[in-house]
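[User]
If only I could read backbone structure tokens as easily as an amino acid sequence. I have put the entry right below:
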Amino acid sequence: MKKILIIEDDNLIIKILEFILKKEGYHIEIAKDGNDGINKIGTILPDLIITDVMMPYKSGLEITAFAKKNHPTIPVIIVSSLGKEDQTVIEGFKLGVDDFIAKPFNPIELVLRVRRFLQ
């Protein structure tokens, strides 16, 4: 079973992502802040990371930089309310983010993008 680490501080978004992805058969781990997310990357070695940009303690960009430096084969998807042209999102792609999904997101689109990385 593929493991997905969701790093998100919004409980509603966590519940939505968890519901959608568990229904697809994925094992879900949750981290509610950047520090916890970075710790879990190293301990659970997820097959995919989904993170927000604006997080307590460490940002999604810091999480991405850590993941890509230490585990470069783990895909990272940012799910954020920032627009695709936002400088922060552009910086994320420079750091190695594999995909970006804007909030609010379409659940079917999310599942298709996750499947693409986990096949």
